[in-house]
Amino acid sequence: MEIRIGIVNAPRELSFESSQSAEELAAQVEAGLTSGTGVLKLTDDKGRLYVVPTAGIAYIEIGTEESRRIGFVG
């Protein structure tokens, strides 16, 4: 699952892949935003931990699982 996080006043977004489902990620994001700790913690499919301050989040986009295309698309 692809996750993209827009950061306020930053020209680029944070983008990574996760092995969790969309429902699991949405629940984790909601819990992080409402917990009051001030940070959102997410882990990618390689085990790296991303800690993002919730005050700086502009948006969070959780993509769908899509198989990669091989070859030319006409």
Automatic annotation (TrEMBL):
Pfam families: DUF3107. This is DUF3107 domain-containing protein. It comes from Leifsonia virtsii.
